[in-house]
Structures are given as C-alpha cells and as structure tokens.
Design brief:
Blueprint (H helix, E strand, L loop, with lengths): L3 H22 L19 E6 L4 E6 L12 H9 L9 E3 L2 H6 L20 E3 H9 L4 H11 L5 H18 L22 H11 L3 H7 L3 E2 L4 E2 L5 E2 L4 E2 L11 E9 L3 E10 L2 E10 L2 H17 L3
Antiparallel strand pairs: 1-2, 1-11, 3-4, 5-8, 6-7, 9-10, 10-11
C-alpha cells in the first residue's frame, strides 16, 4: 500500500517533468495566435461589414465625408425601386434632355458615362436600371429621375427626385450623406461616407431586382422601342465592376469616379453563405480600387462571424 506522502511525491515529480518539457519544447507555453493585422489600402475612406450580424470588418476613415461619383446611382435605383406599385415594364420616352446631357456642348464629345440611349425611342424602366447601373449611364439616371420626380417641368421633377434621395438617406440614418444630383455629377454638395454607402448598398441588395441587376456582368436583352414600331439594335451593356468574374463570390455593386471623387467602388461578395459588403472612396486609380476591394474582402472573410 502507498501512503499519502508517496502519492504527493509522485505528483510533484510528474508536474516538474511536464514543466520541464514545456520549457524545453515551447509547447503550451506559446502565446495564442494573434489575428492578422488589418491591411492598409490606398483609399481615403473605406469600410466593410457583415450585414447579417452588423459586425464591422474593416474601417479606414469610415465616416469621412467624400465625393461619391456614380456610386450615387445606388440611391437613385433604390428610390425608383421603392416607388409604390412600381411597374418595371413601364415605357419611358427618351428625351433630348437625356441624350444631350452626356455630351459636352462645346466639344460635342461625350463628357459623362452613357448608356447610349436613342433619342425618340422608348425603353422600359427595368432596362433603364440596367443602363444606369452597368455602363453607369447618366442619361439613364436622368430618364429615371425625370420619370419618378414630381412637377410640371423636367427641372422640377429632377429636383424633387433628388429630394427623395435625401429623404431616403435620412430614413436610413445616413448622417454623413447628402446628394445634389441624381447621378453623382456634383454641384459641390454631393458626398457620403464609406460607412453610409456600405449600409445603403446592404439595404439595396435586399431588393431582388437591384441584386440581380448589379450582379449581371453583361446585359444584352434591352429593347429600344422605335416610335413607329419595332426596335433599334443596341450594343450590349457591360458592367463596369470588374470584380464580377475576377473575384470568387462577387455579387456587385457599383463603380464611381470623377475629378474630385477620384476612384470609388461599392462592393459585395458571398462565400460559404456569408456576405461581406464594403465601400472604397477616393482611391488612387481605377485598378487600385479593385485590388483594395479584394484585399478588404479577403480580410473580411478571414474573420469569424
């Protein structure tokens, strides 16, 4: 029989042996692995989160008020899609105001991104959404704002539509956002934060039409209806968001650029049933915004929850 003193002696021996093993091998003594440091990106403002949990995944000056370029058109689309009794098949006549708008009157060359709408034809609201969100057509944005604003003139209708955009921003709690145009062509007071635009995109992606449109790489099914019957042939609209097809799981959302806005991108991707949505504002180049978005998405997906 072993007495209690013998048991204690053997226990002390075992503990001492384990401690020696830990000290000699480093096993168990190593500090727990640290999370990877947040990456640096070139954008002036950037933000990403998990819309399912609300968890912030990345932030770099996320509340800085910056110019948005054509990422503004996310709100234009959301206001259209929020209209009561919306009919996506409603035909909109293409006016001279829309086609002239994208042309520089002095040089007669294209000054803003265009869906190349055909003067005098008609196009469905659904197709105009594709024309606005894929090739970033400012002419298509103008047509939608004029159609869904209120007033007796084009100027009154577009002004009221922009007011709706700002009303929607307030409704969504986007406190660092203000729009002074329907397409991102700023009159000096068009801005948002990367956090606000990310929240806006997450809301818009809940709409199945919006999600389908922004996730489409190329759209060929548009119909430009001639006044006398039949349709005009149009070149396919390619999505300006090249993350689609180059980043696994990418589902959208919208590019933007301009002299003051520099290079912007609102982006989203889904992997393993988990979605990450984010925004980059005022990046250094067209290509860099996509590289930075991929970096942020990778970092976001690497995090838990």
């Amino acid at each position: 029989m072993t007495n209690g003193h013998g048991v204690r002696t053997r226990r002390r021996t075992v503990v001492a042996a384990l401690a020696g093993a830990v000290l000699s091998t480093g096993v168990l003594a190593a500090a727990p692995a640290q999370a990877a440091p947040a990456p640096q990106v070139s954008a002036a403002g950037a933000y990403a989160f998990d819309p399912a949990t609300g968890k912030t995944l990345f932030g770099q000056a996320p509340d800085a008020r910056l110019r948005t370029g054509s990422t503004t058109k996310i709100m234009t689309a959301l206001v259209v899609l929020s209209q009561p009794h919306l009919d996506l098949n409603r035909k909109v006549k293409i006016k001279k105001e829309y086609t002239d708008y994208v042309i520089d009157p002095a040089t007669k060359t294209q000054r803003y991104s265009s869906a190349h709408l055909i003067l005098g034809d008609s196009m469905s609201v659904g197709d105009l959404l594709y024309g606005m969100l894929l090739p970033s057509g400012c002419d298509a944005a103008y047509a939608l704002a004029d159609t869904y604003g209120t007033g007796s003139t084009t100027a009154q209708r577009t002004k009221s539509f922009i007011a709706e955009m700002n009303g929607k921003a307030r409704e969504l709690g986007l406190t660092n956002t203000h729009f002074d145009g329907f397409d991102g062509v700023s009159n000096g007071n068009n801005f948002a934060s990367s956090r606000d635009l990310t929240k806006l995109a997450a809301t818009a992606l809940k709409n199945k039409t919006f999600k389908k449109v922004v996730g489409t790489p190329v759209y060929k099914d548009m119909k430009s209806y001639r006044p006398g019957g039949g349709t005009h042939a149009m070149e396919a609209w390619s999505n300006s968001n090249t993350l689609l097809g180059t980043y696994r799981g990418a589902i959208g959302v919208k590019t933007g650029s301009g002299p003051e806005a520099k290079f912007c991108l609102v982006f989203a991707a889904t992997r393993g049933g988990r979605t990450v949505v984010g925004t980059i504002l005022a990046d250094t180049s067209m290509d860099q915004r996509f590289k930075d978005a991929a970096t942020i998405l990778d970092y976001g997906f690497a995090q838990r929850g």
